[in-house]
Design goal:
Elements: E1 9-11, H1 19-24, E2 28-32, H2 37-41, H3 43-49, E3 57-63, H4 79-96, E4 101-107, H5 109-112, H6 118-129, E5 135-139, H7 146-160, E6 170-174, E7 189-192, H8 197-205, H9 208-211, H10 217-231, E8 243-248, H11 260-281
Helix pairs in contact: 6-7, 8-10
Bound molecules: zinc ion.
């Protein structure tokens, strides 16, 4: 398995397995922009695969994680050293979460933001061609982090370039840098991220280089899951102890489906109509 950036890292926690075989068995695939995005987005998929021999979780981080803010013990780290720290943190998450494979493509963020960038396209195409996941977890199109939206678009380009019969059955866009609580309920997909709470917290806390400076992504992500579960319905008790909201992007991956812009504009329009209708009803 050879990726375009010489710094790309392929890690298979079970050292007895070849990378291609590990990727082939992946049933739940998450592709995120940065180290730690997978653990914020796809705890539900990680839990789905734990202890189930018929399922396997695969993680892909597209960028190299350069340029992240650093503080505390990491304040004096060079870019180079920070990249190594982040790579190792992601490997540790893969070990702890028992992922089948963890790929870090190590692309500069600027390359990912270029539509059709040859190296990014080739790498994502190789990954999607090398497995047949039931579900793919991606960033959501209303995320406010530029690199997240760019990674989503590169992934959708790669999926659409596959023959129709080889495209993933289900493609979900998950919340990270903008919650998806605003989606009208009919457009929401509830991912059960309340299972394995101790593991979930540990997986988030592994990314010490991101949280030790005072950004407690670990506590925030777990708190958001709890808040989502509680504020989902006002008249019933919580059936799940944690929810990560997602939107079903599968229509965008199908021939003749909406473009990402059309799809997302329609979601925002439905929110607007929902808000306006409630105000009108009681005015
Ligand atoms: Zn990110």
């Amino acid at each position: 398995m050879q990726f375009s950036n010489p710094r790309a890292d392929v890690f298979v926690p079970d050292a007895t397995r070849a990378p291609a075989a590990a990727l082939l068995g992946v049933t739940h695939l998450c592709i995120g922009a940065h180290q730690d995005d997978i653990e914020i987005m796809a705890q539900s998929g990680i839990s789905d695969c734990l202890g189930n021999p018929k399922r396997a979780f695969g993680g892909v981080v597209v960028t190299n994680g350069a340029g992240s803010p650093r503080a505390g013990a990491y304040a004096s780290f060079s870019d180079e050293r920070m990249l190594e720290v982040r790579r190792e943190e992601q490997r540790e998450a893969a070990r702890l979460g028992r992922y089948a494979i963890q790929i870090q493509l190590a692309h500069p963020s600027a390359d990912v933001k270029r539509p059709g960038h040859a190296g990014v396209a080739r790498d994502l195409s190789e990954i999607f061609s090398g497995c047949a996941p039931e579900v793919v977890y991606l960033h959501n199109p209303a995320d406010k982090h530029d690199t997240h939206v760019a990674v989503l678009q590169r992934c959708l380009e790669a999926i659409r370039s596959l023959p129709a019969g080889r495209r993933p059955a289900r493609v979900l866009g998950c919340e990270v840098w903008r919650d998806l609580d605003w989606l009208p309920d009919a457009d929401k997909v509830a991912l059960d991220s309340g299972r394995d709470p101790e593991l979930a917290l540990k997986l988030l806390a592994i990314f010490d280089s991101q949280i030790s400076g005072g950004k407690r992504y670990d506590l925030a992500a777990v708190g958001r899951r709890k808040a989502n579960a509680t504020f989902h319905t006002s008249h019933s008790t919580d059936s799940l102890s944690g929810i990560t909201w997602a939107v079903d992007l599968t229509p965008v991956t199908r021939d003749g489906g909406p473009t990402l812009a059309e799809f997302t504009s329609a979601l925002v329009a439905r929110l607007g109509a929902d808000v306006a209708l409630r105000i009108k009803n009681f005015g």
